[in-house]
């Protein structure tokens, strides 16, 4: 019987404190290089959880989108966004709009949804003058470093994401649900196991409980997979948190996280989570033209503060269902 040709080996640079780095010789044709080396690049991601490809010379949106499509099984349309993005092409976005001086701490993209990307792709078209790295952390390692009693509580209860949508701050209904029509929003929420309540002023409040730990759909390894720290009030800069609480009240923040039973998560716990992430973070400053692929279940990512213009394109791909990852808390759809 005919056999498939072997996947060519790529020379990957592995250094402490840095993600795996692959230096590509694309001879000016990044799309052809991506098509030829797709399986080898994906094999590196499967082995290490991520890879930074340097030397492709990505310089424009159209060429980057073509490279994304060569490397991914299928690009996803983002739903339930927490911040607005610019759409460049189907499934190709800008990075989330977030103040440059504020960090976006470690998280797994869309880990509060029932279907999330298995693969994240990031391409740097313009590198900032200072900072701005997309840093990474290995989720099984982070899980193993967390206190046992804390992990056991999250295994039992999961985590709760609360959101408040209004016309003044945060993601809009259209950003999150693709429509402002109440009927469409309610249908989405029911199908996605999201509890909801319309407010007297027309705003929307939602709650959704999810597992904090899942098993990788391919390897079966347990991963700390959530956005508990990133979307918690105590990760916000103190002056921003105080302002938002003063304007909207403690229950009116654009987003917040709690234990799965609804109990608040203390500032000390959020600080602990961020410290564990930080102690297991790897980073490499962006250079213009770089491409990074990240296994979204195995590897958390962040965005560090920066100065100067920064343009990073993002794609979410290879959809994974929560139901296929052995969730530890029950999700009920109505």
TrEMBL record:
- Recorded source organism is Streptomyces machairae
Requisite cofactors: Fe(2+)
Q: Which SUPFAM superfamilies match?
A: Clavaminate synthase-like (SSF51197)
Question: In this record, what's one Pfam family?
Answer: TauD
Keyword set for this entry? Antibiotic biosynthesis, Dioxygenase, Iron, Oxidoreductase
Do you know which InterPro entries this protein is assigned to?
Answer: AlphaKG_dependent_hydroxylases, TauD-like_sf, TauD/TfdA-like
By its UniProt entry, which PANTHER family does this protein fall under?
GAMMA-BUTYROBETAINE HYDROXYLASE-RELATED, TAUD_TFDA-LIKE DOMAIN-CONTAINING PROTEIN
GO molecular function term, any single one: dioxygenase activity
E.C. number, please? 1.14.11.-
Per the database record, which ranges form the TauD/TfdA-like domain?
31-316
Q: What is this protein called?
A: TauD/TfdA family dioxygenase
